[in-house]
Each structure stands twice: as C-alpha cells, then as structure tokens.
Design a protein that fits this description.
By secondary structure, this protein is an alpha+beta fold. The chain has one domain. Helix content is 32%, strand content 23%. The protein has five helices and eight strands. Strands 1, 2, 3, 4, 5, 6, 7 and 8 form an eight-stranded antiparallel β-sheet that branches. Strand 1 and strand 2 form a beta hairpin. Helix 3 runs antiparallel to helix 4 and helix 4 packs across helix 5. The longest helix has 23 residues. The radius of gyration is 19 Å and the shape is globular. The model has no long low-confidence stretch (mean pLDDT 94).
C-alpha cells in the first residue's frame, strides 16, 4: 500500500470528483484541493488559499447550452486517527437556481461529530409546505420553516454521495446526460460503499468475521 500523503490523495479525490461531473452532467469542470493548514484540505470549485468558501456555482450543462441549474460542492478533509486515509470532516452538496448561489433549492450536508443534536448526515429542502406549517403549529406551537428541517440520510457511513445527487438530477430531468453516465454513477457509488464497508470492518471487525464464518469463508 502506498504511503499516505494528504496533498496527493486530496488532489486525487478532487480529480475523481471532477471526472465524475464531466462524465455525467457537466463540461470542463475542475475542482481544486487547497491545503489550509497541516492536516486539513478543502475541495471546492474556484477557490484558493485566500478564499475557501465557494461563491461560484458549477453550471449543469453540456457544451454551450444554457445551464438548467448550478451545483455548489465543498469537502473539508483531514486524516483518520491512524493517519492512513483521507477522512471527510464535513461536506456540502447543493443545488441552486443561480450562478451566485443566492437561490438554494436543496442541499445534502455532513458534519462529523455534529454537536447540536441534529443528524451528522442530513438533507434540507428549501421549500414551503402549508401542511408542514399546520403540523408544526399544532405540535410545537410555532411555524418552523420547512427549509430548516434536517432529514436524516444514511448516517456517517452510508450518507448520500455526489453520485446520488447527480442521479437525482438525471431522474428528474433537470440535467442532460452524457452517454454512459449511468455506468459512471454506479461505479462511483459502489466504490464509495466499498470504502465505507472497509472502514466499518476496520473499526468493528467482529461482525465481519462472524459473517465470513456463517458463509463458510472462515473456519468456525
């Protein structure tokens, strides 16, 4: 196994994300990996070490067609406790109407060890609902905006990926797709799940060993 290198491995991850976008719903996108301080990296679109917050949307379009919407992506990375693998500290994957990211539609958020009582991995939808307003008023005594709800989505290990967001764009007809996009999405999703499964086994090998014994792959 190659020795872990934060800058190199983060740049590789940024390249993989860029390739995923350009092989599915975007054209000529390049995400940057910027080292912020020892052991920390930010990956996003059109950022530099002086400004790490994304302010430019990624156009959802192929070729010169007018974008149907814009994506905003930000991944803050560190290392795991053993300093062997990249670890996502937090991520944001959002769909916006405008290039300047002033009109959000929905976003997936992840924050490791989130301490405010909300789920680490969650979905927020920037919309309104009369039914929710009525339920909130009845249950809480106030109208909590729908866009402030944190819907749990899979937890730390199996949270939504960029592949899932792209899959949503294609399924709902929001984006045009390149030929072979489905295969690219599925390969990326499967790769993420394999990495997460390995991480789960590394932290808690007992169930995996027992499963292998149950399946006859290890002696009982």
């Amino acid at each position: 196994m190659a020795q872990f290198d934060l800058g190199r491995d983060a740049a590789k991850f940024a390249g993989e994300l860029s390739k995923l976008l350009n092989c599915t719903v975007c054209d000529g996108i390049r995400l940057s990996a910027v080292i912020t301080n020892p052991g920390r990296v930010v990956i996003a679109y059109k950022i530099d070490k002086y400004d790490l917050d994304p302010t430019h949307g990624i156009p959802i379009t192929l070729g010169s067609k007018r974008p149907t919407g814009y994506l905003s992506l930000s991944f803050r990375l560190g290392t795991d406790a053993e300093r062997q693998y990249l670890m996502v500290q937090s991520s944001f994957m959002g769909l916006f109407l405008d290039e300047h990211l002033d009109q959000p539609i929905m976003h997936y958020d992840y924050e490791r060890d989130k301490g405010d009582g909300y789920p680490e991995a969650h979905l927020q939808v920037c919309a309104e609902s009369d039914a929710w307003d009525a339920l909130s008023l009845l249950a809480r005594g106030d109208k909590r905006p729908l866009e402030r709800l944190h819907f749990p989505v899979g937890g730390r290990r199996f949270r939504p990926t960029l592949e899932d967001l792209i899959d949503f764009l294609l399924a709902e007809g929001i984006a045009d797709k390149r030929p072979g996009a489905e295969a690219v999405i599925e390969a990326g999703r499967e790769g993420f799940h394999h990495l997460q499964l390995r991480a789960m086994i590394r932290r808690n090998p007992g169930p995996a060993i027992q499963a292998l014994r149950d399946f006859g792959q290890l002696p009982t």
